[in-house]
């Protein structure tokens, strides 16, 4: 039992994983080249051109209406440059502070892990198999620190590349909207695909290379090898935390400041160039919704992969040194890249968008097609890479598992993700009754609107939680903690498509802002607004995926912690554990309070600055004078950098402090409490905010 081999030989795995990653990178570069064909220069065309396959004439609307095309394009290029500079400046400033934290935390990891055996350089008995000798504690400390830094840098790079691609594509989407909504959609979606495939492929390739390089030293000590690889997931998620918090504070502060003064007090349109906060608002879309989301999903992907690898290393895969089954999580991700590549072609090449009403269904079809194809892909991967029967480590014992059970674990995660995504969309789209009821409640004022909104947010938690619960029950019943880890990976297996859809939204939003600021035709603004509206709806689906996968990943990591700490049961009747449970359940509220207060403080400064400019700059409301955009960008940047540190410190330091002073039992309670509470809070906020 557990010694039967997989159909796919080791050499096949060594070829398949890097080839799929390289194909993903190559495909993203092809998409980028196609987007770059849209030039930010004047391009006059003959009105005699026949209608293209998107159902629109290729000649420009500006030419119909007698506007100066060259001036419009030049304005778009200038605005794009301002947004790109603002976003780049913010990320570089953020990364300076995050870099200091990254180095400090890497030193902490090295000291904590090395001090376990007093920085011993002698081989020691393995944790889970005392009869075998494993590499020394010093080696684990060094390699874990290196993998942490690898994960952190890859996470930061994922966010940065996503932001650069989005700011490169926003004005190009605006210009393509002159030729029809179909061409604008393809430009925005291709740009999102560049980010999605780059992130998925880079994350996979770096992890694969790290495993093979570490293997040169660890050789037959797979327990030590994959334990040191877990630093990769920690590095990715810790950087994602700061990216998400810093970017979120930036974008919401700018958004509130721009809307409260511009739309509410001054009654000017959204993204009006007279609004001093308009550039900061558009920058915020990129640093929050693009860079932040990219780092966030990369963190979940890295953690789920590492959690599955750690459990597999102490199961029959690791015990019998079966390389192909061992890399099953990476093979899932590899096939996911190929599936997402085929799915993307459905949106960009096989089916063309000819009308506004086709945009949202096209994006939803992406999720459905990728899920169906991925189910087939998972079945094939499981059949060729996993033995017909094997054992999985389950809290001190080895659980007998069959390959079809493992397939169901991954598939249930994949389909649970789709259900969570569509339920989240149901509660956040204006096409359905929940949002229509909230809109109807506005007839009697803001108070009833807030009450209805809160109720909707709480109600939106119900079905996603049941979906997560079913996924946990099925996957744990079949394959213990390994099952939960691969279920999370199943949910994230179509990450390239999910990110493409998610990035599409802010790119379209920016495109609409640029059209407004450049003074383009109202017909173009209508098209970009239609793209943006579809993007806002599908962005909620992306958030649902992120929350669901984070819940499963957290549980898998919790299981790994409990196993490593030799805790057999987490007994809530024990005072230490119960205290930890209550405190842990409180932490998401403390974290939310800190971030919301930070947004409020930053928004207050932004509102005051926007009001000051409207009141003191002569001719601003008449459009004769340009506002001081740079000051508003600086306010959002300074506030978000300053305010992201306390929430980040709360999350990173709590486990260290609790574990050091109160022991692992209390810490297990804190982790369980924060996991259960955090899922409810985030899901309800997702429904309420959207």
Automatic annotation (TrEMBL):
InterPro entries: PPase-energised_H-pump. Keywords: Ion transport, Magnesium, Membrane, Translocase, Transmembrane, Transmembrane helix, Transport. The keyword S-adenosyl-L-methionine does not apply. The chain crosses the membrane at residues 15-35, 97-116, 136-163, 184-211, 301-320, 327-347, 367-386, 406-427, 461-489, 545-565, 577-596. One of its GO terms (molecular function) is inorganic diphosphate phosphatase activity. Signal peptide: none annotated. It is found in: Endomembrane system. One of its GO terms (cellular component) is membrane. Its EC number is 7.1.3.1. The keyword Amino-acid biosynthesis does not apply. It is a multi-pass membrane protein. This is H(+)-exporting diphosphatase.
